[in-house]
Amino acid sequence: MKKHPIDINQFRSRFNGLEDIARTVLEEFAAAAPNLLSAVEDAIQERSLTKLEISAHTLAGVVSNLHADGAREAARRLEAMAKHGNLSQAAEAYQTLETEIKHVLDRIPELLTERKIA
Amino acid sequence: MNEKKRIFVVDDSEIDRNMVSSVLKKKGFEAVPLDSAAACLEEVENACPDAILLDILMPKTHGKDVLHALRAKYSAIDLPILMITIKNEPSEIIESLSLGANDYITKPVDFEIAVTRLNTHLALAELNRDSVRLKELESVGALIATYNHEINNPLSIAMGALKGLEQQKASEAYRKLDNALWKISDIVKKIRDTTKKSRIEYTPYTKSTKIVKIR
Fold it and tell me: For labelling, which of A48, A95, B99, B144 has a CA lying 20 to 30 Å from the CA of A75?
């Protein structure tokens, strides 16, 4: 069975009783994800360690709120690369991140149609 | 009326900032979302927050630099600051606490734990303010006792002298003076009794406020 990009049990548990906020977080992430990804991609292309560390860190923080562990780890990996000044595998790591984020985005509309998500 | 505690939520991530602010509002706080370290440092003077939730890694100014700047002016008791970040390495936590952070919350934020920790630090700050107020009241009590003593001595001397004049069949003016001095003496006695009996008592009023009674 394919692993869910969002740990839905953790997500429901944390947002228990905060239905409207849970929905807003999912909607805001769906809207902001392209820009958050672009910031990471731009930083890699510019070879800017500072920008990459901050943009990857921000994205990791946001997806951690969704309990999207795969996306979180991919973003954290890029953040660590920037912190250690080694971008030799950044392009590959970015591809992984992009794929993970896509999986999360694909799941969000389905989640939002559920009557109760938290 | 129970005033809402004002909490700054400082995070460059709009989603995180809005999410935490919304949760705090639901929990009865006044949340002030701020998107940068500069905004935090600017607003802290105007808006006088009761506590700050501060992201560590932000563009331009680091959260730890904000913490350092704020601690130069406000103690951990005066202004609780809780660092909030995805970084959970022990060295990061130790550094933040060493710089004066009251606490450290990792993302994903467990809202119940975060609010409980926040309330703990707010309660400690309130307890400290109560303690300062109590010390002020105790100082006032000590001052009254000193004045009482200082008034009482010359008053006794004056009353003794008056008694001597009375024995020499003093005039109406002396009788009036006698009455006045007895009244002053009575007031001094009341001040002394008040000082002896005064103590501070705290009475629970609501869940988070108290009435201070002087008895």
Answer: B99
Tokens describing residue B45 = 């003077």
Query: What's this model's pTM, rounded to 2 decimal places?
Result: 0.79
Are B34 and B10 in contact, with CB atoms under 8 Å apart?
A: yes
d(CA B59, CA B110): 25
Place of tokens 């672009």: A38
- Going by C-alpha positions, the residue among B83, B80, B113 that lies closest to residue B96 is B83
* Contact of B83 with B104, CB cutoff 8 Å: yes
Whether chain A has a CB inside 8 Å of the CB on B111: the answer is yes
Provide the 8-state DSSP code for B49. -
**For B80-122, how does the pLDDT look when each residue is reduced to its tens digit (9 = 90+)?**
999 998 877 888 889 999 999 999 999 999 999 999 999 999 9
How many residue pairs from chains A and B have C-beta atoms closer than 8 A? 56
Question: Chain A residues with CB inside 8 Å of B15's CB?
Answer: 25, 28-29, 32, 62, 65
Which class for A101: exposed (0-12), middle (13-18), buried (19 or more C-beta within 10 A)?
A: buried
| Both structure tokens of B179 | 């009455």
pLDDT digits (tens, 9 = 90+) for B27-86: 999 999 999 999 999 999 899 999 999 999 888 888 999 999 999 999 999 999 999 988
Q: Give the whole-angstrom CA distance, residue A31 versus residue A34.
A: 7
How far is it, in rounded angstroms, from Cα A72 to Cα A62? 8
What is the ipTM score, two decimals? 0.92
**Three-point CA angle B138, B141, B145, nearest 5°:** 140
Backbone φ, ψ for residue A50 (5° rounding): -60, -50
Q: Between chains, do A25 and B19 touch, taking CB under 8 Å as contact?
A: yes
